[in-house]
Amino acid sequence: MEQYNAASQSSGVYPLPQLEERGLPNLPSLKLGPSKLGPDQATSRPVVPAKRVARLNEPLSARAAPNSQLQPREPLPYALPTDRGPRPPRGMAPPGRFSGLRVAAARTPSMVQTGGQWLQPTSARGQARATQDGRGPIPTPRSAWPTGSDTLASHFDDLTDFERTEILQYKEVTYFGLGAEKLSTLHSAGEFNHGFDDERGDYNVVMHDHIGYRYEVIGTLGKGSFGQVIKAFDHKKKCEVAIKIIRNKQRFHKQALIEVKVLAHIREHDPHNDKNTVRMLSHFYFRDHICIVFEVLSINLYEFIKNNNFKGVSLQLIRRFAIQLLNTLRFLRKLRILHCDLKPENILLCDPAKSAIRVIDFGSSCMEDEQMYTYIQSRFYRSPEVILGLPYHCSIDMWSLGCILAELYTGYPLFPGENEVEQLACMMEVLGLPPKKMVQDSTRRKLFFDSAGAPRVVTNSKGRKRRPASKDIMSVLKSSDVSFVSFLEGCLRWEVSERFTPEDALQHPWIAGEPSNNTTASTSRASSRATNSRATSSSARDNGRNSNSTPRDINLCATNALTALGPRTASDSGQAYASASTHPNEQVPRGFLAIESKARRAR
């Protein structure tokens, strides 16, 4: 290579085909000389000086030159460390390397190890200059992180027997849980996946152990029928993430693949991440479990309501949430994606002091033409067509949206049925009887109606019977805000063809910011509701909001301090929303944060 660099200083040379035939490397950095057209006027060959041709065709032994005749080369564009720093503490990873290795004092994440030496590539400008100087392009450096075989060689005693084989599959190792109390694996794979799983198929999470030789387990965020969500630290990107670890069962495995497909489709069509959906950062297999990595968010809207003592929130804030959710549903409808489990638990705040939200849990989602289940949605937010066994479309999410906004206003579910029969009875109590055609087309009508088509009268656990059309939405909400009530009525229509689409809802006066002439001050929910009644309703709420047979996620958030954005008061007038800011990152009004400060003092 020294000879090539010396020979390439003269212009007008080009690597000949004979070089490859003689086993010599190509010289892509050499410059093209002046070219002439061949005799057929169709080909062009670079003109190479005769001396150069003779020189290149000489035997290698004849071409060897004394070192004194070689042109001196510039220093290599690498930093070669000459000293080695102290060994870092156990379990800690110094910048750019993994825990436990001795590193040079000036080493950076971009350095690589080659032949026992640490090399740092130059900048892009330095690489371009090196190419122009005739040294050839600098090869792309290998990863700054060690491979599995590197880690095995340097930390053989720190790995379990299972990991010594498993780690060889990984091209990069950024963390391997040095110092963690690792599970003692079994030799038989039939014993609950080598001992990594419990009898339910959930992965046995160990604090500070690794997930995929990259993520460090630092906490648990929740557990559900699908599996569990853990909080982890990404040692490669140096940030916290939430990892959804799917149960090691065929049913959940299959549904998780659909979720990954939906999330990837969403990410592809939302490059700027402005559609208010949770961001899937990556996904991978680890010890027979599908793992999906998400961004970490704050509390969900159910916790938000609960932290506010189930008093409901102002119309200003509800409108901010509604606009973001409608933009999400419009985006999903354009992609023909059904969420199928929209509820307060699956809507998370990005920041506890701001109104920006993200929709999570696409574990029950499907494409409109690839529906897998007939029994979907949590009961309190389940649409009538799903209850009656009718075909369903994206409009089921608009029904759920109406129920969610009503609950944000009152603090309690709009249709709190104890079972599916009472759930439909709750709907009929407020909305009246469904159209006859819906009843006739229902595959489950015998469960809800008698032979004459009349609804069956049911009595709930409190001895209460619900009569059709005995209430209306305005009386249930205890609100005289005509515009808000009109918006909810558009979301909660029996007929799918008459129900609001996201595009229709975004044009409604309550959303578009046009004040209504018939709105009056909203009355707040009675603050003296009996404590025992609240506890009973809360228990029923928990049962109803979790009654979904399909795999579902729980909140991807840490349970932080109380961050309620303010209770609904009598000062919330019908025209207040007209001047309310809808920017999702706007700071919450100061008065709203007083509740948070009070709660923190109470803790």
Automatic annotation (TrEMBL):
This protein's record includes keyword Lyase: no
Record SUPFAM superfamilies: Protein kinase-like (PK-like)
GO molecular function: ATP binding; protein serine/threonine kinase activity
Record has ATP-binding as a keyword: yes
Keywords, sorted A to Z: ATP-binding, Kinase, Nucleotide-binding, Serine/threonine-protein kinase, Transferase
Pfam annotation, one family: Pkinase
Lineage top rank: taxon: Eukaryota
Cellular component, GO, one term: cytoskeleton
CDD domains: PKc_DYRK
Domain Protein kinase: 215-511
Region (Disordered): 1-95, 113-148, 507-554, 567-603
Biased composition (Polar residues): 1-12, 113-125, 545-554, 570-585
InterPro entries: Kinase-like_dom_sf, Prot_kinase_dom, Protein_kinase_ATP_BS, Ser/Thr_kinase_AS, Ser_Thr_dual-spec_kinase
Compositionally biased region (Low complexity): 516-541
Chain positions recorded as ATP binding sites: 244
Family to which the UniProt record says this protein belongs: Belongs to the protein kinase superfamily. CMGC Ser/Thr protein kinase family. MNB/DYRK subfamily.
Name the record gives this protein: Protein kinase domain-containing protein
Organism: Prymnesium parvum (Toxic golden alga)
